[in-house]
Amino acid sequence: MSTTRHKKRTGRRILATAAGLATAGALVAALPAGAADEQDAGASGWKRGEKVSGRTVDVQLLSFNDLHGNLEPPAGSSGEVSHVHADGTTEKIKAGGVEYLATHLRTARKGHPFSITAAAGDMIGASPLVSGLFHDEPTVEALNKLKLDVSSVGNHEFDEGAAELARIQKGGCHPTDGCAEGTTYEGADFPYLAANVTDEKTGKPILDPYFVWERAGVRIGFVGVTLEGTPNIVNAEGIKGLRFGDEVETINKYTKILEAKGVKSVVALIHEGGAPASSAYNYDCDSPGPGDGISGPIVDIAKRLSPQVDAVVTGHTHQAYACTIADPAGKPRTVTSAASFGKLYTDTTLTYDRATKDIVRTAVASANHVVTRDVAPAPDMTRLIERWKGLAAPIADRPVGHITADIDGRGSTAYEKPLGDLIADAQLEGLAPADKGGAQIAFMNPGGIRSDLVHAKSGAETTDGVVTYGEAYTVQPFTNMMTSVDLTGAQIVTALQQQVSGSNEASPKILQVSRGFTYTLDMTKTGAARVDVSSVRLNGAPLDPAKTYRVAMNEFLSGGGDGFPALAQGKNKLVGASDLDVFIAYLTAHSSAGSPLAPPAADRITVVK
């Protein structure tokens, strides 16, 4: 990282590293009023050194979450948001793409001399090829251009491990793939906050736990955390030696530290979220009363966070909401999330009292806004995307298959997804040969399906129905290695029950299954009883509890990820090709321009509601 860039980053923010908490107060006191980025400040109408009058100051907080490296407009349902009209009807609006996100954010900042842009994690990871191929360096470059001030880490920031996350923050060439374009990656201009991710040996956070934004004497602290359950949803190898602490305990701890240093206004950035009763981005989750329209983990977290926290920006669930959930003192507090993939941004007004140095909570107002594509795209972002697309094109544009219609994965709300069946079939076929694993069944985790396969032509495609390598990569971006293991029929049934019980009871994770494997899921019941054990069959025959079966799954599942400890009991593990390789091989083998592949019927799991 160059000296100039380092000075720029230091001047824009006040950091509290684990090693420097004792001196953070001195840093806050020593920073000149208005030492934020002058270029951005000038664009919003405020200049360094300019005095601000009046007791209160309105601070604009722009926020988003779960971008997942979606630089280009997401395809299919992944690039749409639902708008509900007063008469109850809904419409789909095309949204997303950093060219448009940049334009919307820059427009929103105009006339707001005090404006902060923050994010709640998963900026990178599970990204489309144009970013993922280059270890998400293109996305961080885009976020720097967006003038992102701060972000919490999310679980996907750990997809390539803690060491790679440190490189993403600080800069430097990738240890294996080297420097893209022959230039050194310079790192993030914004701090990633990881207050609840600590080194098991030292007990210290692996990245900055908090950040203080300051302009003209207005100081607002940010504490960032990822969900405590991150170890359950990422590959264990990348997070060895790390501890993920309780979100509430961590935020309350650092809120006290900030308050002791004179920072009384605090915003929590939490990569954990909730589920509103409606998927419409403009749904009123405060009807009939405050917070009545939202459920999920964030509700309990918000209710227990210190009253000193003035606003809560969340993520992880890819939902849209701007709700009011009372703090432990009974005061209203805004809790927001801007869906995912850059389709929305949240605009929150924080009224800062210069006398008390705190936010006037009753004056907080927040709303989500659509990143529509009817505005002029930001030229600098267009140039950035075209540059990286050019580098990726030789790989990304290669046709690997053909389809007759959309095959929904991420866009499907059903427990069994057509694309999930297709992926499971590909994994079974790839690992069925005796020398490849001898698989008889394949299971696919639903969270690993990152997009849909879209029939309409896009990019360099000249006809509808073509599936390119880049599109297949977007569906399966993790490059998980496939495994085959021995599991008894009883262990398989236990795994099915774990879909809807234990850590997955409140939010079921239904495994996608290969052809020939069928069973009934009765959602009128509770917990493990939701699985009708007598209905579980393989090729029409009841599953024998005592018999051993060869089961194919990715290494994440075979390690017990997503709350499936039964799958980690597998024996005689054989590692095969990557999930992406077997997916592409299946598409190529089973489709052509003259004989495209039709969407699976998705009729393997009978669901009773």
UniProtKB/TrEMBL annotation:
<feature type="signal peptide">
    <location>
        <begin position="1"/>
        <end position="35"/>
    </location>
</feature>
<dbReference type="InterPro" id="IPR029052">
    <property type="entry name" value="Metallo-depent_PP-like"/>
</dbReference>
<dbReference type="InterPro" id="IPR006311">
    <property type="entry name" value="TAT_signal"/>
</dbReference>
<dbReference type="Pfam" id="PF02872">
    <property type="entry name" value="5_nucleotid_C"/>
</dbReference>
<comment type="similarity">
    <text>Belongs to the 5'-nucleotidase family.</text>
</comment>
<feature type="domain" description="5'-Nucleotidase C-terminal">
    <location>
        <begin position="400"/>
        <end position="568"/>
    </location>
</feature>
<dbReference type="GO" id="GO:0000166">
    <property type="term" value="F:nucleotide binding"/>
</dbReference>
<dbReference type="InterPro" id="IPR006179">
    <property type="entry name" value="5_nucleotidase/apyrase"/>
</dbReference>
<dbReference type="Pfam" id="PF00149">
    <property type="entry name" value="Metallophos"/>
</dbReference>
<dbReference type="InterPro" id="IPR008334">
    <property type="entry name" value="5'-Nucleotdase_C"/>
</dbReference>
<keyword id="KW-0732">Signal</keyword>
<dbReference type="GO" id="GO:0008768">
    <property type="term" value="F:UDP-sugar diphosphatase activity"/>
</dbReference>
<dbReference type="InterPro" id="IPR036907">
    <property type="entry name" value="5'-Nucleotdase_C_sf"/>
</dbReference>
<dbReference type="InterPro" id="IPR004843">
    <property type="entry name" value="Calcineurin-like_PHP"/>
</dbReference>
<keyword id="KW-0378">Hydrolase</keyword>
<keyword id="KW-0547">Nucleotide-binding</keyword>
<dbReference type="GO" id="GO:0008253">
    <property type="term" value="F:5'-nucleotidase activity"/>
</dbReference>
<dbReference type="GO" id="GO:0030288">
    <property type="term" value="C:outer membrane-bounded periplasmic space"/>
</dbReference>
<feature type="domain" description="Calcineurin-like phosphoesterase">
    <location>
        <begin position="64"/>
        <end position="319"/>
    </location>
</feature>
<dbReference type="GO" id="GO:0009166">
    <property type="term" value="P:nucleotide catabolic process"/>
</dbReference>
<protein>
    <submittedName>
        <fullName>Bifunctional metallophosphatase/5'-nucleotidase</fullName>
    </submittedName>
</protein>
